[in-house]
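re: that chain from earlier
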Amino acid sequence: MPRNPAAWIITTARNRAIDRLRSERSRSASEIARLRTLEETAIDHPLDEHDPPISDERLGLIFACCHPALSLEAQAPS
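^ sequence. v structure.
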């Protein structure tokens, strides 16, 4: 038991809030970096109007193989 439970709770709550703020800031930075990468990829490889469209059956298969309900081992091989 801490000597001063109220002080312990306040310190713990403050540290948890600081951790959450740091996590959100870190996540935001990584999301920005990911978006920049996606933008660069889109610029490097624009969609070609002459590419054949993907059939509905193939899209269904892609989504089925990547469904989050499947374990990583059962999803599409990498």
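The two ends are 50 Å apart (CA to CA).
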